[in-house]
Description:
Elements: H1 3-10, E1 11-17, H2 22-33, H3 40-57, E2 64-70
Antiparallel strand pairs: 1-2
Helix pairs in contact: 2-3
Amino acid sequence: MSSAAAEAATSYQQVFPGRADQVALVRRDIAGHLASHPAVDDAVLIARELATNSVLHSASAGACFTVRCQAGRG
């Protein structure tokens, strides 16, 4: 597998509308993307907190926010 293919396999990026109902979708997407990774629970918790903060405390409210996730080796 090329390094570009390996990176694509471990990277995730999605733009979400800046609404509270989108936080559950962020959790679902990150959990699905990292399903077999040992840090999936930690990543889902962190993503949920950051998505919630984006919606509640930034200009993303009513606009949009981007979630990026990349799993590294080890």
